[in-house]
Amino acid sequence: MKFSQEDIDYIESKGLSLEQIEAQLQTFQKGLPFVNLKSAATLNDGIIQLDKKEEQELIALFNLEKDNKSILKFVPASGAATRMFKFLFNFLKNYNAKKSSINAYINRFNATELSVFMVGLEKLPFYKTVINATKIYFTNFDSLSRNDQLVAFIKTMLNEDKLNYSNLPKGLLPFHNYQNHIANAFEEHLHEAALYATSNKIAKIHFTISEKHLEQFKSAFNEIKSTIELKTGIAFDITFSFQSEKTDTIAVNSKLQAFRDEENKLQFRPSGHGALLQNLNALNADIIFVKNIDNVVVSKYKNDIANYKKTLAGLVLKLQKQSFHYINKIETTELAEEEIIEIAEFLRRQLNVIISLEFEKYSTKYQIDYLKEKLNKPIRVCGMVKNEGEPGGGPFWIWHNTGAVSLQIIESAQIDLSNQTQKQILENATHFNPVDIVCGIKDYKGNAFNLEDFVDKNTGFITNKTRLGKKIKALELPGLWNGSMANWNSIFVEVPILTFNPVKTVNDLLKPAHQL
């Protein structure tokens, strides 16, 4: 495809090269391969279940070691709250008060989300704020019918010329209604971090956000900083970064040609959360907790959440220590045959590494090199929740085209659902990934790995989107906890559903984890 000099200048202004764009267009043409599932990971086959004694030992290990480690919490927080209110926007668009009642609308469109919203309205954390504002914007509010009052309430909450909640970053939307104040998700992450992501009474938290929201987040932190530091006894070191434009990918039309707007300008899209690998790679810490911005709870559950996070972190430290011990042994001594077998068993039993069937045929030197290469990788311990129909990636054993098998987190978009065998494996999955991850990103010498070296570049996504009212295809990079971490050592641990409380729609704020 030919690009004009104007196109090339625009591409380069984003930090991209023409060669990268041509490679992306070739990817659209060729497509990305589906993963080849071997089986779902289940308890005692890829997922471990810790008993109370083991949990307490790991928590104790973390508490003992944490002040000797640099610790960081990494929170992807880029999104606006718009999608939380999608069903309400649809209601405002389709509802005609002159032609039907809201109940009739609910029945006609099977609008169960709207029904739940109406029933729980007064339990929403921002109800009083919105209702008071509604009465200011709509001075005749008290004389309106109940149907019209609801419409006025929703318009006040969402419209740009009023409270404009839908355009707030999700992290700054009111989430929890306490007796004396309303807390947003950003604040709740600080309270959580004080309980588990601290070293020497300092909590370092890094948020990836949209650049346009930076001042709002800084202002939000300045408002609560002194209060929260006094309450927790912890000092907070908050940093921010943005998704780089260099990770944007070109959009294509239905003919897989570069999509252009009305002014013939090339259109690009953010390439999904996999782009945040660059942000993660720029950080420097021994232990990194990863948790999404909307997965928080009210205060009464925080200690339980903190204990599970400490458990996962303790397991990272335990496995790292053993891995580093073995690597140092490889480098400083001549291993006996039984020691080679011991290391191979550690990899297989503790790190879920499937040892090559050819391993016994290798020379001793190659066996040792093979074991060191498998040990010397970033490590992640991921909480896995029993599948209760929630969206999200899941843990699976997959085949690689080399014949090797590995343990991965896989999204449904990576699976060929037209293949009945693959579909059946997906349907038999018992657990899913709630993005509850603790990472060790340094090697045995204390140097940070280059995380780009451990990406499976064939695990991106091609998704269908709409742009300027037209259907387009978009290319997403390998997901941050999917293909971007495909070649890490991965350990999956069962954790309770309590640890997973995302707010995908406004109605999720009515669930117990978000109510006092």
Query: Roughly what percent helix?
Result: 25-40%
Tell me the name of the CATH homologous superfamily of the largest domain.
Answer: Spore Coat Polysaccharide Biosynthesis Protein SpsA, Chain A
| Class derived from helix and strand content | alpha/beta
- Measured between the Cα atoms of the first and last residue, the distance is 58 Å
How many helices? The count is: 15
Contiguous low-pLDDT stretches (5 residues minimum) are none
According to CATH, the fold-level topology of the largest domain is: Spore Coat Polysaccharide Biosynthesis Protein SpsA, Chain A
List the helices and strands and how they pair.
Elements: H1 5-13, H2 18-30, E1 36-40, E2 42-43, E3 46-48, H3 52-65, E4 71-76, H4 86-94, H5 102-109, H6 112-120, H7 127-137, H8 146-158, E5 174-177, E6 182-184, H9 185-196, E7 198-199, E8 202-209, H10 214-232, E9 235-242, E10 249-250, E11 268-269, H11 277-281, E12 287-291, H12 302-332, H13 337-350, H14 364-375, E13 379-386, E14 394-399, E15 405-410, H15 420-427, E16 431-432, E17 436-440, E18 461-467, E19 470-476, E20 489-494
Parallel strand pairs: 2-3, 3-20, 4-8, 4-12, 8-9, 13-20
Antiparallel strand pairs: 1-14, 5-6, 7-8, 10-11, 12-17, 13-16, 13-17, 14-15, 18-19
